[in-house]
Design a protein that fits this description.
heterodimer; A: 214 residues; mainly alpha; Rna Polymerase Sigma Factor, Chain: A; Arc Repressor Mutant, subunit A; 2 domains; elongated; B: 253 residues; alpha+beta; Phosphorylase Kinase, domain 1; 7 helices; 53% helix
Chain lengths: 214, 253
Amino acid sequence: MGGKIPEISHNRVGNKKPWKVVFYMAPKNPSAGSPINGTRFETTVMVHMDAAYNLARWLTRDERDAEDVVQEASLRALKFLETFRGGNSRAWFLAIVRNTYYSGLKKNRSDTLNVPFDEDGLQEHDSAHAFWAEGAGEDPIRDLEREEAKRLLRAALQELPEEFREVIVLRELEDLSYQDIARIAKIPLGTVMSRLSRARKLLYRALHPGQQES
Amino acid sequence: MDCAQAQTVIECYADGELDAVTTTRFEKHLEHCGGCQRALDRLSSLSSLIKEAVPYSAAPERLSRQIRARVDQRNVAPGRAHGAWWHWLRPAALVAVTAVVTWIIAAQLNDPPAKELVAEEVISSHARATLTGHLADVASSERHTVKPWLSSKLDFSPPVPDLASAGFPLVGGRLDYLDHRPVAVLVYGRRQHMIDLFVWPDNGARPVAASEPLSKQGYHVLHWTSAGMTLWAISDLNAPELKTFAEKFSGVK
């Protein structure tokens, strides 16, 4: 991953022009920002600050770390602003946020990556494709106290492996399309679907005290 | 669509990612399948629980402030300085490119074709005048006669130097029209030869030194600019003497 920009493939074609004349002068007034990059930075990056922070918070699971990731990602986004060729700027910036998080993780805490996660209990229902219809038992959401359900769900999301956590955040909180999620997480469309499916089953199961115990 | 098939697409349906055809088929199945309807209900209740349980955490105001500050800093900081020469090179390159393009356009517009055209006009005018024997509208060796006459007919006053001492006596002057404007034609003599000198103002023209005369249709043609005037000399005189004439003309004035 390194310091590379995430691939938003359809937007990256032809971003190398043979030559381009751009007047760039450092602003005289430090608070004015670059007149060219400044406006573009605001409309491409700064408008998605909440989304970026939200994703970073759920990836890092820590507010201070999230702020650091977003700051770092914003500076990267500034650096790569010229490579953004239209399209979904939120997905583009979130890809950088995610990338920043993972490259930082590699540097600092490579040992904590890839926490093994026991999915055995899911496999059989998964293959039958019948989890939601039969395998889930009684609907725990209906039976639980609303506050208790919310508490359980937050805890479960917190505990999800990050590859599942990120697709849930991107889908349920950011309302992004499978296509955008695939680009951000750099996985095939089919993997987006299967990860989302797994993640939902894991969350759902965590709401079911009976299943949790067994 | 049976239940097994419905279950494979149920999440795509809940996420609104199902194509229209499959959506129709799925919904048809849903109408008479309580199990799949229940499954869909569970999915949507999970989805709303997630949205409810996980509040969208808005970025702290401080974060945006810090980022803007760092971005501004980066724009002025030495971090950008290593690229500074490049930033100056860009305008420099633009100027250079503009200069080259301008030069090419100017060369295209001014030089070969336009100059060619004027040379043709000069030759035609001179040939006509010598054929008809009408070289001068005002025939006088006196420049104080020729110059006012020309000035009164034109919107400029051409230089009419006395070059008799150099062996180029003034014969007279006439008017002509070329290069889309009225011009003065001074007629000087050299032995049996006649020299037509076409003069008109050309403000802002680049100074063009008299080079070697062109040889065209038995005439020698010489072009130069001097003191804001465009000058064309044409004669059947030999080239070196025509050049001498040009030098005397602009040197003496």
